[in-house]
Inverse folding.
């Protein structure tokens, strides 16, 4: 039996009378890449905020690898390996590409701040191994030669790749990405798709909110379609592409 990375059970969230997420249930099998699609305002970002406990659900429960996240802080959720990026998040200005990637490891830095300040041997070893991992991730996305460049000087496509590998520094068991292809051109989107497949194939479960259908169709094992806060359907890319309910949800939408 495959492990379930994320089990969303009857989750609802109401904002001042508006049901932003309405009785949503689905599960994400470990090792798969699940896309969440739906028109603007469908509740996709709110769903991410609920599964990371940034918002508390009004109803329902979320289990992360069989453990309920109810009562955990967002930090505790992240420490268990549920790591997200934010819609319209950017690389950190005033930092190099390498430092941007390394900063993603902050959750797991074990040496105390005092030990790091004094550069004790344990802290130095840790710094070296983090640096090596960050350099390997830069290599993976073909950005090694820009390691010392200011991250904000890189093209948008490269900045998005940096954001994703920065999240990988936290060693996620489940990586949540909110619209990573926003603002990317076709070739940048293709590079991002390749990275997402590589992350999934290396064993990290991935859940991605995305409008770019070429990306979704190219990378997703399963697609959850949301509309007006509710699940319209869940299926493979081929199944949902020809589903009249999905097409109806997008009439007047942006896709
Ligand atoms: N913090 C909030 N307060 C009030 N309403 C919100 C809040 N966050 C989201 N909403 C509303 O919830 C609905 C779903 O929003 P969102 O989850 O951002 O949609 P999506 O990411 O699918 O575009 C929208 O109608 C939005 O205006
Ligand atoms: Mg959103």
């Amino acid at each position: 039996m495959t492990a379930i990375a994320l089990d969303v059970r009857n989750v609802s969230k109401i904002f001042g009378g508006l049901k932003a997420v309405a009785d949503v249930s689905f599960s994400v099998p470990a090792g798969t890449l699940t896309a969440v699609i739906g028109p603007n305002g469908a509740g996709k970002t709110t769903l991410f905020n609920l599964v990371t406990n940034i918002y508390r659900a009004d109803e329902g429960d979320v289990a992360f690898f069989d453990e309920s996240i109810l009562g955990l802080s967002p930090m505790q959720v992240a420490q268990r390996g549920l790591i997200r990026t934010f819609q319209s998040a950017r690389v950190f200005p005033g930092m190099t590409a390498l430092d941007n990637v390394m900063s993603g490891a902050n959750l797991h830095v074990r040496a105390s701040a005092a030990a790091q300040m004094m550069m004790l041997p344990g802290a130095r070893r840790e710094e070296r191994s983090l640096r090596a991992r960050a350099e390997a991730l830069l290599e993976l996305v073909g950005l090694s030669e820009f390691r010392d460049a200011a991250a904000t000087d890189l093209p948008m496509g490269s900045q998005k790749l940096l954001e994703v590998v920065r999240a990988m520094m936290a060693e996620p068991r489940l990586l949540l990405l909110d619209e990573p292809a926003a603002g990317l051109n076709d070739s940048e989107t293709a590079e991002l798709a390749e990275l997402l497949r590589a992350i999934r194939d290396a064993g990290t479960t991935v859940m991605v909110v995305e409008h770019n259908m070429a990306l979704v169709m190219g990378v997703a094992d399963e697609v959850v379609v949301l509309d007006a806060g509710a699940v319209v359907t869940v299926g493979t890319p081929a199944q949902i592409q020809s589903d009249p309910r999905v097409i109806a949800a997008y009439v007047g939408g942006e896709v």
